[in-house]
Amino acid sequence: MKLIVILWTSLAYITSFFVVYFFINPTQKYLFNGQYLEFSFFFFPYGIKYLAAWLYSWRSILAIAPGALIGHLMIFGSAGFATVNILVFAIGITVCPVIFYTLERCGYKKHQVSDLNFSWRSVMIIGLLASICNSILTNTIYGLSWIYYVGFIIGDISGLFFLLLSFIFVLKLLKKKISF
């Protein structure tokens, strides 16, 4: 994998992480009268992880890891190196590639992004499946209540949906620019 792919992917992850933790979460806290929620209604880093897995398959783990580690340490500080937190970190960066790998082994053929004929519905459905797996594993390890399972999935899917729309928009712009 090229270093530039790792840099851009990790930069996208870190940027999305900052947007969530320094803009979206404080806005949520304000809207919910000072209540801090352990999840974000728009968790863009999941969208970055998922789209990276879609584009780069197993190599996405390497591309996401530096940015995800920075985000992980921002949340937990030195406690991020506790065994349970390292396990959750590993789950977070591997679930999406594992889901794609499993589906491909079962016969699913993902379309290349370059042909612009991919099914956004299948991208979202697989994203939901990966989010459910990620939520179950993460929240079970932390021993959180069911509301966190639902909250994680809502944040993941809304973040993925927003990023996918942005991705499609950019691809359509590039297609128009290339065809002129």
What attributes does this structure have?
180 residues, mainly alpha, 78% helix
What does this protein look like?
The protein has 180 residues and is mainly alpha-helical. It has helices at 3-31, 44-56, 59-76, 83-105, 120-142, 146-179. The chain has six helices and no strands. The radius of gyration is 16 Å and the shape is globular.
The secondary structure category is: mainly alpha
What's the assembly state of these chains?
A: single chain
Coarse shape: globular
Span between N and C termini? 31 Å
Return Rg in Å: 16 Å
Continuous helix count: 6
Low-confidence stretches: none
Largest sheet: none
How many extended strands? 0
Order of helices and strands: HHHHHH
Q: What does the secondary structure layout of this molecule look like, with pairings?
A:
Blueprint: H1 3-31, H2 44-56, H3 59-76, H4 83-105, H5 120-142, H6 146-179
Helix pairs in contact: 1-2, 1-3, 2-3, 2-4, 2-5, 2-6, 3-4, 4-5, 5-6
Entry summary:
This protein is mainly α.
